[in-house]
Predict the 3D structure of the following.
Amino acid sequence: MNRQDADNADTIPSFPWRSSRLGGRFQEAARCSRRSRRVAGVALALALAVSPGVAFAQADALLEQGKQLMKKGKLAEACPKIEESYRLSPRSATLLALATCHEKQGKLATAWAEYIDLGAAARKEGNKRLEADAKARGAKLELRLPRLTLNVPRAAAIEGLEVTLDGEPVDSAAWGQARPIDPGEHKVSASAPGRKRWELSVTIKRGERKAVAVPALAKDGSAAPEPAPAEAPAKEAASPVAAAPDKGGTAPGKGAAGAGKGAAAAGPGKGAAGAGKGAAAAGPGKGVAGAEEGVAGAEEGAASATPDAAEEPEPTPAAAPKHSGTFVLEAGLAGGALIGLIDAGSFGDLSTYSYSYNVREGELIAPCDDEVCHASFDPAIGPFAGGTAFAGIALSEELHLGIRALGGYRFGGGYLLTGGPSASMRFGRLWLGLSGLAAAVGQNAKVTGVKGEIPSDLVGLNYGRTEVNVNAREGSLPETALVQTLAFGGSVEVSLVLADWPSSSWTSGALLLSAWPTFMKGLDGFVIAAPVSLGYRFY
């Protein structure tokens, strides 16, 4: 072995050592990487596990703060905190508190919608008690909900029309429909391409019904005119060039002028033509003059377009139809029970009867007539059917004054005709009212006898009696007879709005289901009526 081989032999064992050393470093790096990934995974798992807990704790704290502020009456601060709590952790208990807060705040439509959502959530959870409570709260609140109708006439419903309520677009399918809305001031607006924007502020109260009619939007004269079609200038530009091929350098200038004239024919007014003429100049001097003429023509064209837009009449903003001061008319069908407690009256000619009583000389037999004799009757109860009517004026949208009439036929014989001044006031979906009535009442009742009056100076001789029975042969009295009387009293109105259609047309009004408990004092006895009616009130 020579020295070179020996040197080489000395260096050979060093390679395995270096390889082993590098491999250890790679293995150590891999172990560190695996440890890092494990630590990151554990941290992520802890974050995922802790995050819902943190959100829940934050939501719980916000809910408690909101409840405390609500107890103090600070609703403007309480409701946003409860709303944020529900966003972080949507729970039925939080939604109930939020709906309650909005109801106290006066946002009735918002609270009503939240009660509906609460009922649906409780149904999914199987919480029947909470579902029933949410349903009852929502039904009670619905009676006080104001409703706003956005009417868009056919003339105003142009292409691209957008109607917004408080900045939120209203779908065209909802036009003309009464929608629940929070009490207070709201902004209605309408816009369309090339038209002037229209806005209207409307204030609505609890239980009030209003309608807003969107007018036809006026054209916007300041809007940019539509560009002229590109094909017309090109076609006009081609003809002068073809007509004068022998004029050399001037031909292009005239060709450009032709293009300008073509644009003038298609464009709006002299402004476009002037611009074309300016561009047409081939020579240096004429180019400047043409440009100036084009600018002047453009100004003239713009000036000529302005009067046309200004001359168009501006539509007056259509406000919500006001029903105060308007005529009110109601008509409906009525039916119910008529109770007659008329104990005395006349059933016809009583002169065929006589009665006797003691006088100083002995006994006197006196003939009967309608002044000294009267028949007595048993109480009578029977159904009746007829109609009801109301005519008056709306002092406001919630108060109507007028005259009410009720008439009907009593089955089994009889009638009821009554009328008098009446007042009705609206509370949400309820109308409550009072009426003063004068009535003519007739009923077929069983005759129990006929009695004659004893003169007051002879009462002492007749053992204190003021009247005695008439001497009537057996079978001479009718079994039943029609007894009639005048009566005076009043009635209470309780009407439920089944459907409400407020609008600016003559059909504006509501369908009402009404009850009219009526009590009247007759000349001889009492009259009680309990009619129920279904009618339509035009207002």
Remarks:
- The longest strand covers residues 430-453.
- The chain has ten helices and 21 strands.
